[in-house]
Amino acid sequence: MSVKNKKQFGIWMDNHHATVIGRADATSEEFSVLGHAENPAAGGNSNENAAHNLVRTQLNQFFKKITSHMQNADEVHVTGTGTVQEQFIHYLAETPQFKNTVAKECTSNKMSDEQLVKFINDKFN
User: CA dihedral defined by 32, 101, 108, 61, rounded to 10 degrees?
Assistant: First the structure.
């Protein structure tokens, strides 16, 4: 039962979309979709420095949208495509609220919400 008291979350993410999986409340044993986050594509910019800063700002806002669904997380399993998972795990490590959160990652293709819930449930059980 002690495992069930941990606040565990799963995230599938790529550069533009994230799905957050977790338990709806502390007493629930079943994982469910807690929310989705979108990262809008950066528009064209003639100044390379301004374009880079815009991309970094949008990425940080994207990460904040994701973490808004994960209050007091003890464990996070991040999966998806690309390298954004590593960037997100570094973001968690640098954020005081998530400093002690255990983060793991793997790579997987896009899956339906139901498949993702099952995948995350298997990772934590």
Answer: 80
* Count of domains for the chain: 1
Q: What is the mean pLDDT of each run of 10 residues along the chain (125 residues)?
A: 71 95 85 94 77 89 95 93 92 94 93 94 90
77 exposed, middle or buried (CB, 10 Å; 0-12, 13-18, 19+)?
Answer: buried
Distance separating alpha carbons of residues 117 and 120, to the nearest angstrom: 5
Residue listed under structure tokens 């959160």: 101
Tokens of 4: 């069930």
Output the domain CATH number for residue 32.
3.30.420.60
What's the domain range around 37?
2-124
Distance CA 96, CA 110 (A): 30
Task: Give φ, ψ of 113 to 5 degrees.
Answer: -60, -40
User: What is the pTM assigned to this prediction?
Assistant: 0.88
pLDDT on residue 100: 92
